[in-house]
Automatic annotation (TrEMBL):
CDD domains: FhuD. It is found in: Cell envelope. Residues 97-360 form the Fe/B12 periplasmic-binding domain. It comes from Marinitenerispora sediminis. It holds the Pfam family Peripla_BP_2. One of its GO terms (biological process) is iron coordination entity transport. GO terms for cellular component: outer membrane-bounded periplasmic space. Keywords: Signal, Transport. This is Iron-siderophore ABC transporter substrate-binding protein. Its main location: other. Belongs to the bacterial solute-binding protein 8 family.
Length: 360
């Protein structure tokens, strides 16, 4: 799942089966042996070049459904009204034919025990990311049968209608937000906020729509326990973790207000000062390689990397001079869970990758 520089370097905001078991397995088996289950009460003062993790209440990542949203219905009770970022939708029965038009929602719906009939993809990536197939092996055949409804930037409304869905899930922040009226004419449509940093809030809102809030809380409890084990193991001296993504035409470092930034914070890890920004990411040039450094670097290259700066940077002397690279702490990670999808299974995989910082 990960490779380390010098070993196998490549030249990429209510309450939860088989899917729950998959998440539990990821949480349990992914934890490094010997990690403490106790998280630190307070983060140690960071050095001048880093910013420390903060308590969840102070972090930019919301974890609860916003006031006035969600549902008052009990799990399994239908019809139900669900208030969301696009308004209020009535869902007559437990959804069985769901279309997801935001990447992280595929992960979320599977974690709640349902395989959607349709999904939107991301240009340059598979419709069903490899990490999803690995996280939900019992659903492999059904996953292979998911129909494409275009990409998250270019939805095919006719194809969505042809699938005769009983629920559409979309993000306010994506193309689905602008097409909410059209989608709602096809089926009840629930809009989550979108943007990876909101993944826990949005997962809870999806659970409210599906009537699976208890199941969602079980999944999130497993995630929190996994993160706490890492936080406990590094409590005395939390290392800083840098996050870098090479994609077509852009090289970015990931900020605090991002999916992976929120996961690192939950794990009690510090961030390098250039990445201590409340933004999803910051673009950097091939000459700004020093902004990528930290005690550890976790980086991905989208696709084959041909249209990225990865080759120039990773083969360059500036990269080789970074402290993390010299120490053998530059780790290549899977692009889909780290930077394209924001859901419970992806979060578990990111935590598993981050465990190595607690093992030294």
């Amino acid at each position: 799942m990960v490779t380390v520089e010098g070993e196998h370097m490549p030249a990429g905001p209510r309450r939860l089966g088989a899917a729950a078991a998959a998440i539990a397995l990821l949480s349990g088996c992914g934890a490094a042996e010997g990690l403490s289950a106790a998280a630190p009460d307070a983060s140690p003062a960071p050095d001048a070049g880093t910013c420390a993790a903060v308590p969840a209440a102070q972090a930019p990542a919301p974890t609860s459904v916003p006031a006035g949203m969600g549902t008052t219905a009990e799990d399994g009770e239908f019809p139900r009204e669900v208030a969301h970022f696009g308004g209020t939708s009535t869902i007559d029965h437990r959804p069985e034919r769901i279309v997801v038009v935001a990447t992280g929602q595929l992960d979320g719906v599977l974690s709640l025990g349902t395989v959607p009939v349709g999904a939107a993809g991301v240009p340059g990536a598979g419709l069903v990311p490899g990490y999803v197939t690995h996280a939900f092996p019992d659903d492999a055949d059904a996953l292979a049968g998911i129909a494409s409804v275009g990409t998250r930037e270019d939805l095919n409304i006719e194809r969505i209608a042809d699938l005769d869905p009983d629920l559409v899930l979309a993000n306010e922040a994506g193309a689905g937000g602008g097409l909410y009226g059209q989608l709602a004419e096809i089926a009840p449509t629930v809009l989550t906020e979108g943007n990876g940093v909101n993944w826990q809030q949005d997962f809870r809102l999806v659970a409210a729509a599906l009537g699976e809030t208890d199941r969602a809380e079980e999944v999130l409890a497993g995630y929190r326990a996994h993160a706490a084990r890492i936080a406990g193991a590094v409590a005395d001296a939390p290392p800083s973790v840098s996050m870098v993504r090479f994609s077509a035409g852009r090289t970015r470092v990931w900020g605090l207000a991002s999916f992976t930034g929120s996961v690192a914070n939950d794990a009690g890890l510090a961030r390098p000062r250039p990445q201590c920004v409340e933004d999803t990411s910051v673009d950097v040039s091939a000459e700004d390689v020093d902004r990528m450094d930290g005690d550890w670097i976790f980086y991905s290259v989208q696709g084959g990397g041909a249209e990225t700066d990865a080759g120039t940077v990773l083969d360059g002397s500036l990269w080789d001079g970074l402290a993390a690279v010299r120490a053998g702490r530059a780790v290549a990670v899977e692009d889909d869970p780290w930077f394209l999808n924001a859901g419970p299974a992806a979060a578990e995989l990111v935590l598993t990758d981050l465990e190595r910082v607690a093992e030294e």
